[in-house]
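tl;dr need the bound structure. longer version: we got a ligand (adenosine-5'-diphosphate) that a collaborator sent over and nobodys looked at where it sits. i said id run it. heres the input, straight from their email, havent touched it
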Amino acid sequence: MSVLTIKGLRASIDGKPILNGVDLILKSGEVHALMGPNGSGKSTLANVIMGNPRYEVTGGTIDLDGTDILALPVHERARLGLFLAFQYPVEIPGLSMAKFLRRAAETRLSQGQNLRVSSFLKGVRADMDRLSFDKAFLNRSLNDGFSGGEKKRAEILQLLTLKPKLAIFDETDSGLDIDAIKSVAAGIDHMRGPDFGALIITHYRRILDYLAPEFVHVLFQGRVVLSGGNEIVRELEERGYDWVKEGYGEAG
Ligand code: ADP
Ligand code: MG
Ligand code: MG
């Protein structure tokens, strides 16, 4: 079992404090949802966990199974089994998706050894079926000219290929049609099990209805101000964030 323990995490961008003491524990075998108003620091938290150097960590700790990951660069965090699905995926013209997936898998799964191409591609094709993702995309440049839904399917395909221990999805469901949301949810659901945990950052109930997370957290002004179960999602849908702001805001 893997455990990611975040304690008192503080982070800034360009000298502006964004995270003001985040406490959160994610374990494999669990799916967590993270909600919160725009600007509350959700993407910042995802980026800091993954090690994006633009964000300055000014306090607190992040520990993965006894390793202080704040000291590690992004690729080493990925090698330890962390995965971040970006809100705005990068396009890499000239690198086919098949090649990209194979390189990424070789780094993550076999310490740089070469994978057997035929059996590797067989697994990737099965995963593409699972996501209703046209196999013609394997030969296309990664994300180059992909629609929103195709980019998200490509991301989930990376997830299924890399088999991380803990994955973070930053608004992966935003702007997707219903079929694409279902594919994304099916991919995450396929990973589910004792060796996999997820943090789903979202504004919407739909993906959470599919995934039924065990825990729901609300981030506000750079802190987790509320944690509980699915009832929080219903409450937010009915009442919006005003009650959170009133209860936990600077003036509250
Ligand atoms: P959320 O994902 O919850 O909407 P973010 O983490 O994106 O929140 O942003 C939190 C705050 O940090 C916002 O006030 C935002 O304007 C600011 N911020 C985020 N990224 C940057 C950046 N690259 N440069 C300057 N400010 C940023
Ligand atoms: Mg935002
Ligand atoms: Mg965000």
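gonna send this back to them w/ a short note. The two ends are 39 Å apart (CA to CA).
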